[in-house]
Amino acid sequence: MQLQVDRRAFTTTAFLVVVNVIILALSKWLEDALNLREIPLKSKDSLETTPISFILFAVVFAPLLEELAFRYLLKKGKYFLVIFTLSTFYFLIVGETIPLLISLLLLNILIGLVYLLSKKRRIVPIGVMAYSIIVFGWMHSINFDATELSSLRFIEALFLFFPYVLLGTNITYIRLRFGFFYGLVGHTLYNGILIFLQILTT
Q1: pLDDT tier for residue 150 given thresholds of 50, 70 and 90
Q2: Number of folded domains that form the chain
Q3: Which residues of 111-139 are buried (b: 16+ CB within 10 A; e: fewer)?
Q4: Do 18 and 189 meet the contact criterion of CB atoms below 8 Å apart?
Q5: Is residue 199 situated within a structural domain?
Q6: What domain range includes position 83?
Q7: Torsion of CA 146, 58, 77, 12, to 10 degrees
Q8: Distance CA 142, CA 136 (A)
């Protein structure tokens, strides 16, 4: 069976990923221009010590796990119960702090209630989508040192998390408009570009 690639879906996905990368670069430039404190990623050490396993996780496993947990359930599919269960376990693993863990589990509770109370509904309401995007951005706080995060000013936190929220927004649009596969492709492509740029600058 030949895989049919939707050109419009692929070009839209690639375009939104490039937009996200450009906005991330602009936010980094603004951080420097405004003399804001920048927190380094924990992953810099992993990239230097175990590059192959880190790249494999960041480009393959992390996008797959995050897309299943945050985006698959936004549109009801035949594997809903399986993914719902797996995403709950995933949230229990990545929820490093109590507030983050509660927020992650609340997302699954909201999605479960939406489909339970309205069995004909195929897509979650916009409010639940927005909540999913915000929690997706917040979840990436695990990429940074908790002590450093706690001392950030509001504007520094805004610059730090806005690119993640924007990525969540773009991938959510791609998932709902073109399907789960293209959302996964977009997330994988984004992570791959960032790692490539990180390798070039180290």
Answers
A1: confident
A2: 1
A3: beebbeeeeeeeebeeebbebbbbbbbbb
A4: no
A5: no
A6: 7-34+58-193
A7: 110
A8: 11
DSSP string, 47-105: HHHSHHHHHHIIIIIHHHHHHHHHTGGGB--TTHHHHHHHHHHHHHHH--SHHHHHHHH
- Cβ atoms of 129 and 171 within 8 Å: the answer is no
In a domain, 127, yes or no: yes
Within-domain flag for 53: no
Report the share of the chain in percent with pLDDT over 90: 74
**119 found inside a domain:** yes
Report pTM.
0.92
Helix (H) or strand (E) holding 198: helix 180-200
Q: 94 near 135, Cβ under 8 Å?
A: no
Per-residue pLDDT of 100-123, as tens digits, reads 999 999 999 999 999 999 888 999
Longest dimension (CA), the chain: 54
* pLDDT above 80: residue 44: no
